[in-house]
Amino acid sequence: MSLNAITLSAMSGLQTAQTGLRTVSDNIANIDTPGYVRKILQQSSLATNGVGAGVKVEQITLAVDRFLQSAGIRAASDAGAAGAASALWDQAQGLFGDPSEDTSFFSTLDQVFSAFSVLNDAPTSSAARAGALAQVSELFNQSETISDQLQNLRDQADAQIRSDVERVNQLLEQINSLNAEISRGRIMNSDATGPQNKQLQLIDELSTLMDIKVTPLDQGGYTVRASDGMMLAGEGAASFSYDGSGARGELSVTSPAGRTQLFGARLTSGEIKGYLDLRNEDLPAVSGQLAELVSQTANELNRVHNEYTAVPPANELVGRQTGLDLPTAIGGFSGQTTVAILDGDGVLQRKVDIDFTAGTMSVNGGPASAFTPASFLADLNTSLGGFGSASFTNGQLGIKASTGNGVAVADPDTAPSGKAGQSFASFFGLNDLVRSTGFTQYDTGLKATDPHGFTPGSQITLRITGADGARITDVAVTVPAAPTMADLINSLNATPGGVGLWGAFSLDANGQLAFAPPSGSGTTLTVVQDSTARGPGGPTMTSLFGLDQQTRANRANSYSIRPDILQDPTKLSLAKLDLSVAVGAAAVAKGDVRGADALNRAGQTSVTFDAAGGFGKLTQSISDYAAGLSGQIARKAAAAEAAKETAQAVATEANTRRSSVEGVNLDQELIQLTTYQQAYNAAARMIQATKEMFDVLFNMTN
């Protein structure tokens, strides 16, 4: 071997050792840098005509373990989702308060019913009545506050999702652009580990926000794909957008080619998934259950209050908006009720007995005369004579006594009136204790043969969503000209033009219209837009029937005590109307507070709760339903916290194992440092020896 060849061989060793020393130096300098992957110098021997000619640097790579990288990415996504869920569940549970404290929502509910027991000991005490009403007001104030704050949590989730989506777009752009930089470095045989390390850190951050799959490229860098393999970065960067304006928030993705589609079921984990599930599923479920509990509480208080009367009776009873025309509302009633006019001392002035089963009215126990649903209002006014009058305006029935008198409505103990599980007074809400700002009772009493009443040609747009939360389709249904509820249901269930491919609407015995998907499908329905109206200025189909979860959930912040009763607690209806007395005798008495005992027991009366959130249709007491809801919220909050701790533990373990392979080990680097120093010294000595040989030869020739 010539001296020149020896020198070149030594120079290659010197340069390779220098590169190795820089590599080790970079590793040691970044020993505490989170996410840093150590560099590895790949070198090989040089040979010329089969003779060794030194060493060369093949490339500098990163100590990436693809299996551990994949496990770490998945663990980070799961931890991100669990952390988001736990944070919001903790806040949601806190809204209801500690059940062991008197100020918690569930304690307040218990106190509502027990507050009325005080009136048994102080039947004429205005203070005791005011105290009971204050407790009822506190319940509805708390429910309104909790409902609003649950919506605030959804808004908070929306804001966080938008922020995360913005960051995802930035990360995808940066990851994609780094691929080009890494590729150029590899082609030019320069050290590309700097941008590679940066890219890996960006990928790790992205994995906390959404679940991804990464694949290394031959020329360096990575492609990033969604769970189903959809390209997100590597051949251009995809961009995401979020729409939280509807009942369900939706994530969309636009490909580098400009095609936009719903991301839907591709999102299976990550912080965005955690917030999206809470926003779309869990928080609306709690809101729906809260609304159902509060609504049934209000209904039960009203049911009892409608069975009793104030002393003296109110001059006028004005019912709630039923959303129905009077003939349709009256049709279907059975049993009996009595409308009584009394003076200020509770003495009976006139009595109209109504027998819905027989279709007759009688005045003061006299002969019965027939009426029909269409003639009901006129016949009732005739029967009341000069003692009072009845009216029906905008879906509200009102009965007013003549000046100086009052009105009371009650059913006999045998054959009481009934329709859709409610008495005549309760159905129309004539003497409700609690009022609402919208439609809160969905037992309309409508039958398939009743007129639907909605304007023909108007439309309702329904959104069908799959079990995975991804939108399937939107369906615009047109109200038919055909007049009956059966015709309307047929239009809703039409195929095509309706929802028949994904489930069916049906009308139950109480007149509730509801959508049911095929068993096990998990399909849900929401309302996108509703221009229908039942009569001029009447309710939409959505509000009358409570067609979607959001509409029903909104009931929780709509209740308050009737203003006239709140201002004057003596108008609280606690006395029982005596239907057996004749005209001229006292039918109610001061000090009669039997209604207080009934209100006290209302919390233990079995009622039917509609399906809401995770609860199916249930028949149980209000107290039992409240206990079940309280327990469910506590369990889910605890489960979310446990899931977070588990996911974080798995992520920590995955990162530890990954770091043990990919991270910088000081002892290992010191060994490498010593090796490269020795190699450097050996190459330097070889160069020095070659120089000395050159000098000897030069001196010999001179």
Topology:
Layout: H1 3-29, E1 39-48, E2 51-62, H2 66-96, H3 105-115, H4 118-121, H5 126-187, H6 193-209, E3 213-216, E4 222-225, E5 231-233, E6 239-243, E7 250-254, E8 260-262, H7 271-307, E9 316-318, H8 326-330, E10 336-343, E11 348-355, E12 360-363, E13 368-370, H9 376-384, E14 388-393, E15 396-401, E16 405-410, H10 424-428, E17 434-436, E18 459-465, E19 471-478, H11 485-492, E20 504-507, E21 513-516, E22 524-530, H12 541-545, H13 549-553, E23 559-561, H14 563-567, H15 594-601, E24 606-609, E25 618-621, H16 622-662, H17 666-701
Antiparallel strand pairs: 1-2, 3-4, 4-5, 6-7, 7-8, 9-15, 10-11, 10-16, 11-12, 12-13, 14-15, 17-23, 18-19, 18-22, 20-21, 24-25
Helix pairs in contact: 1-17, 2-5, 2-6, 2-7, 2-16, 3-5, 5-6, 5-7, 7-16
End-to-end distance, in Å? 23 Å
Provide mean pLDDT, rounded. Answer: 90
Q: Characterize the biggest β-sheet.
A: 5 strands, antiparallel
Indicate the overall shape: elongated
* Helical coverage, percent range: 40-55%
| Major β-sheet strand ordering | 13-12-11-10-16
pLDDT < 50 runs, ≥5 residues: none
Extended strand count: 25
Q: How would you describe the overall organization of this protein?
A:
It is a single chain. The strands form nine sheets. The chain has a five-stranded antiparallel sheet, covered by helices on one side. Helix 2 runs parallel beside helix 6. The two termini are 23 Å apart. It is an alpha+beta fold and 702 residues long. The protein is 45% helix and 19% strand. The protein has 17 helices and 25 strands. A hairpin with a 5-residue loop joins strand 20 and strand 21.
